[in-house]
User: Fold this.
Amino acid sequence: MRFDEVLAELESGLLQKIHGFCRMKLGADLEAEDLAQDICEEVLKTARRYERDGREIANLPAFVWSVSNRRFAAWVRRKKRGAVDLPGDAALNLLPSGEDTEETVIAREQAAILRRELARLSRNWREAVVLCYFDGLTAEEIAGKVGRSPGTVRWWLHQARAELGKGMNMAREYGEKSFRPGRLVLSCQGNPGADMEPVACAQRLIAQNILLAAYRTPLTPEELSDELGVSAAYLEDELSALALNELMKEEPRGKFRTDFVILPDSGALPLSREIRRTLFPAYFEKVLSFLEANRETLSSPRFNRAGFTWERLLWVYLHAAPQSCTNRFERENGLKVDFSEMPHRPNGGRWIALGFDNSVPAETPAEGEEWAAYDGPVHKGGGFFAEGFFHQWSGSSSAPFFDVPDGVFALSADLIEGRRTFDSLDGEQKYLFSLAAEKKLWIRRPDGSFTPDFYYIDLETDGELARIFESLYPSLEPLYEKAWDLILRYREADVPAALRWQMGNFLSNSLNVLVPMCLCDAHSAGLLSAPASPADPWLSLFVSGVKGNEE
Assistant:
């Protein structure tokens, strides 16, 4: 019989017979329980050894009867020598008196260790011990209370007593996260759930550190308790919630593992340096040369509805052209899990999560690495598409972009397309436009009229622009292949085998740094317009409208 078959037989029926044998031999309930535990441990150890050696237990009941008699004989011999100890029971019956004698001080210390060991037991074992030894219930009464068989309850008690016995005699060490908790920043691709899952699931520090601790190696609640220095009783609810929301997966033998990619934040800058060293200045020169060759077309009113100068248009085109080529490389090489293939989640939404481990602080960019301080690409959509790269060296960040309600961009698209007029705006629309003017998305001309201060094209023209950028891609494709090979070699060790199917969605994000590198190089060379204000966030904002219906 295999080990797992022996274990199943013990739990389903043999354990009760072993317990009866011990009660018949010893009478005293506590001693009988301990001898039964001793017999079960010997049966399982021997079964494991037999399986490892390729030997077979032909008759399990006879084998158990033999072990039971042998362990009982050993028990009697030890008792004659006065050597019988009951580590689990002895600990559970510690009742220190109020006097500060040496004995009571030792008893208090032992009771503290017992509480520590009880706190890390799994839920079934812990509840069985509390109900039996603290509330005085029998195995049959506990079985009725928890809806399991008395044999199963006895098995839990045996296992718990064995674990307590081991723990009472060891100096247990907590992991580093017990005193130096990590920090996990969570984001996702796809559509979040109804309550903003998955990001909302990891707002608490304890959830973050559970996810970090179980990322590379699946852990039991007891192992997580040791790592975090937190009672298993408090971890179990967090584990259940994380598993329910599919940020963790429960594996055999009660282990949990984190079920999404977590990358060390500290590795982003060194990787970007390698990309820059490998691809630049060749990548930037090819992009700039292409844009200059198409300058007349890209500056025409069809593509330049706001009448920007070429220096201002380069803020957009040095964003849009590389990003278009990056998207094509990802698509043609199947790097990403498409939205249609993303899992449907329990609380709605379809997403794949990504975490960044901020436990080790990220490096500060050195002088000349201003491209490292960027925020993007960030998106909005809803009857329109808006994307931007925001650059700290130009005094801007993505915060104003996220502060703008989606309705502002949708209304702006309608106004630019002529589907609405300023005179036809209702109260709510006037409020949205006032926000657009306040955020400098629209600016007032000297004659009192308004004009958009961001790049906008309609859907048809957006398609024409994409076709223009397609002719740039062949010259950049070899550079993308070099970059992707570099990214894989650099990051592959950070992604466990079970999560490799997701890694393209996030490792390919490292290619996004190509945009700020191009913009930063152009900015340094004086090719871009100066920001209109110290915090002009809209320089590289690209918005394409989707045809809507006039109300």
Q: What stands out?
A: The chain has 22 helices and eleven strands. The mean pLDDT is 83.
